[in-house]
User: Fold this.
Amino acid sequence: MVNTALDYILTQHEPYPAFVVDRRWNLLRANRGAVKLTEFLTGPSPAEPAAEPANLAIALMSGEGLRPFIANWEEVAHYFLHDVQADAQADGAPETLALLNRLLALPDVAALSESPPHAQTQAPVLPIQFRRGDTSLSVFTTIATLGTARDATLQEVRIECFFPMDETTARLLRAWQAADEREASAIP
Assistant:
């Protein structure tokens, strides 16, 4: 029942990217928009599955992940790091602390934890500005949880949905979906 609901949310959010992660940002599932965005930024997924689950926190903060493609990485990373620090303090779980320590071990990340936040912009949400070559995408995210979950594992599920901040980004995300649909209809 919950899996069906999560799949429905991800599908309805197309063509915009959406991910389902656990409390420690391990990827549980993603919609096609998320796959397209990731492939656009980092290239096609490897044919062989990774030894450990993909972790969106590590992907966001690491130079081998999305960091090189986030134009405002320092601002985004600073905000995100403080969220992970708050999670580690709130739950006291060794796994959350291990994730925080793993993030702090990445280049330039420990310094972010000690610096004050950047001056607030006028935007009501934190934009994430992805850039690859001449193409820029500006998005913000929302994070939803299952409000009536009675199971500890389900309580920790987070649904992160990306929304375009401008028409150029929305148009590009819709174009990727249209290209996928044309490709799928061409397959006999």
